[in-house]
Write a structure and sequence with these properties.
With about 200 residues, the chain is an all-beta fold. The chain has no helices and 11 strands. The strands form 3 sheets. The protein has a 6-stranded mixed beta sheet with strand order 6-7-8-9-10-11, with no helix packed on it. A 3-stranded antiparallel beta sheet has the order 1-2-3, with no helix packed on it. The chain is elongated and about 75 Å long. The chain starts with 17 loop residues before the first strand and ends in a 25-residue tail after the last strand.
Length: about 200
């Protein structure tokens, strides 16, 4: 147990399973014998002393807040960001995902002078109750906010069949475009002097 500031001039070697307490036994940094490091019961901040989530990264410049994931392998694999969802409330536990469960989302937020608000969202949602090895139906949606409003609206959906809907949450064909305006149009433009649109069937 230490009290006050301490200066170490050599490495600190952790023997076996060891933990460093932050304020009590539930908030600590834990080192295990396998070399894994866990932050338990606390938020982790990089560049900030007031993290708002489990991990918060802050910087005073665009590059300063960037997060890089590098992969150096002599194969075709690349780096991945993986969002995972279980319907079990116990950490590490498994329970089948149910229809309408959100598997993950990427939120794009900006400050409105006193808080961060969402301007756009990409979200993956289960389209059915999942079943082990046989049913993983999922839809992917893109949402944005209109100018002079604060409402986040769904703009595009790729459903579990691969159908793409623009302006509709229930696309009935490979591409289904719907508008509530009486002057609904689809525009295809070419920068060349002339262009063609082909509708082909086999």
């Amino acid at each position: 147990t230490f009290s006050g500031a301490k200066t170490f001039s050599a490495n600190i070697i952790m023997a076996g399973d060891t933990s460093i307490g932050i304020s009590d036994s539930d908030e600590r940094i834990e080192f295990d014998a396998g070399g894994d490091i866990s932050v338990l019961g606390a938020k982790f901040g990089i560049g900030t002393s007031a993290p708002t989530g489990a991990l918060s990264v802050a910087g005073a410049s665009g590059v300063g807040a960037n997060v890089y994931i590098d992969n150096h392998t002599d194969d075709a694999d690349g780096s991945n960001i993986i969002f995972r969802k279980s319907h079990n409330a116990t950490i590490g536990g498994h329970a089948v995902v149910e229809s309408a469960d959100v598997l993950g989302g990427i939120y794009f937020q900006g400050s409105d002078t006193n808080s961060y608000e969402t301007g756009a969202l990409i979200k993956a949602t289960a389209d059915e109750n999942w079943a082990n090895g046989s049913a993983y139906g999922t839809a992917l949606t893109l949402h944005t906010v209109d100018n002079t409003t604060t409402t986040l609206d769904e703009r595009m959906r790729i459903d579990h069949n691969g159908n793409v809907g623009i302006g509709t949450a229930s696309p009935a064909q490979l591409l289904h475009v719907k508008s509530t305006s009486t002057d609904s149009r689809v525009k295809v433009e070419s920068s060349a002097s002339s262009g063609n649109v082909y509708l082909e069937g086999v």
